[in-house]
Amino acid sequence: MSRQDRLAELRSRMASIPARGDGHVVSSVPLGVAVGEAAVGVVGDRADKAGILPVPAGIAELLPQGGLVRGTVVSVSGAASLLVGLVATVTASGGHVAVVGKPQLGVLAAYEMGAQLERLAFVPDPGPDPVEVAAVLLDGMDLVILGLAGASVPPSRARAVVARARSKGSTLVVTDGHWDGVEVRLEAQVNGYGGFGCGRALGRGRLESLSLAVRARGRSFQPRTTRLDICSAAGRVEWKPAREVSAAQVVAL
Q1: Is the distance from CB of 77 to CB of 187 less than 8 angstroms?
Q2: Most buried residue among 128, 144, 162, 193 by CB atoms closer than 10 A?
Q3: Under a CB-based contact definition with an 8 Å cutoff, are residues 217 and 184 in contact?
Q4: DSSP 75-139
């Protein structure tokens, strides 16, 4: 199928999706779909709390609204665990997520964090215009994650997509590129590992936890930084808020 045919197919499928909160899920969202085969599931119950999408524990405290505001564009950079956590949290709360242009995103890690895979759609190879594919998916998804592969989106194009996200009440997360006019920037850096021992036992054992330093910046609030521990508990991977860190401790952020 040509690019135009693929986009027409996506638009046709999205047009058949009822308004948020109406209807039920009648088809699952397959993993690893190609653009021309994107069988986007019909959206049923939504994760909609006063227009806010949930985020992993600890990150909510960094954001003025306690989550990602619907109808906005958010930039995420650094450790991929942050994107995986967003996917897991939104789908676990009943929302639907599409991941565009990020074939390396860890599906197993998302599942271990509690993600509901039937609410997750993958478009690993969106073709020459991933921004257009993401814009179409905003019609029916709660959260769309867009990998820009190092590209810089022109301001005029960015404004058009922001307007679409606002009108549809969906949230767009952009990564691996430049996008003007984002409401919030989230930056994550690996800050340490747990389980490898200490002293003479340093370097022995098994990885038990991962520590992330996360900083949030936005138009309406001052930068805030915290540290989160991602660790295994009772067969699942959990996010545990830890002590707040200073800017001096997070040199690379």
Answers
A1: yes
A2: 144
A3: yes
A4: EEEE-THHHHHHHHHHHHTT--EEEES-TTS-HHHHHHTT--GGGEEEES--TT-HHHHHHHHTT
**Could you read off the pLDDT of 4-28 as tens digits, one per residue?**
776 677 667 666 554 454 433 323 3
**Rounded to 10 degrees, what is the CA torsion of 96, 101, 106, 111?**
10
Q: Residue ranges of the alpha helices (H) in the chain? A: 3-15, 81-92, 107-112, 130-137, 155-168
Helix (H) or strand (E) holding 188: strand 184-194
Q: End-to-end distance of the chain based on CA atoms, in angstroms?
A: 43
Two structure tokens written together for 235: 């067969």
Lookup: tokens for 104: 């390396």
Specify the pTM: 0.75
